[in-house]
Here is the input.
Amino acid sequence: MALSPFFREKTSTMATNKPVKESTTKEFVEIASIRGSVLILKNGSLRSIVRVSSMNFELKSNDEQIAIIRGFQNFLNSIDFPLQITVSSRKLDINPYLKSLDELMEKQSNELLRIQLAEYSRFVRGLTELGDIMAKTFYIAVPFYVVEDTKGRTGPLDTFKSIFSPSTFVKTISEEDLENYRLQINQRIDIIVEGLSGMGLETKTLAEDELINLFYQFYNPGHTFSS
Here is the structure.
């Protein structure tokens, strides 16, 4: 709906008289701290991140595709806790690869191999001109709530809201308690690893430095964290 000039002028005047609070990126990040392989969120819940390899499903035979689908169905049926599957898709910088091909071609003494490398390099360059080449990475976020009900209807620390807030819990969690929570998260990760390995997928639980770099890249695309 279009606003009248008068209304736009009034709202503009009111906006200039009202102090504006500047928001920082930190306010939108739900992570309070990273301790080892565990993310501690501001709401008091915990997460671990598992990176999962990919497969070319289309190249599988019909029987293999059916087996993979059934395996994934069995995997979903084997878990009794929530999880989140995330796909990170980023434009792949192919220039370093093309540069390595050029260097290899210059060092190649066999003329036939040199011609084949040149044709392959031309083919790859042609693909990049047709469209962006994307790199996809798959992650599974494994949650753990310090207080969970069996039906999963309540969030973390709902039972103790009258005693302390999640922010207080984040600041006071001890290493002993964290290790106990980590063991319980690892039990969930073991179930995930077992289910996905049956489909031929490789998994890796991200360590602290990998988690820092992962989320740094999420909030700073095109950059890599360096300590």
Observations:
- The radius of gyration is 25 Å.
- Confidence is low (pLDDT under 50) at residues 1-15, 149-164.
- The chain has eight helices and six strands.
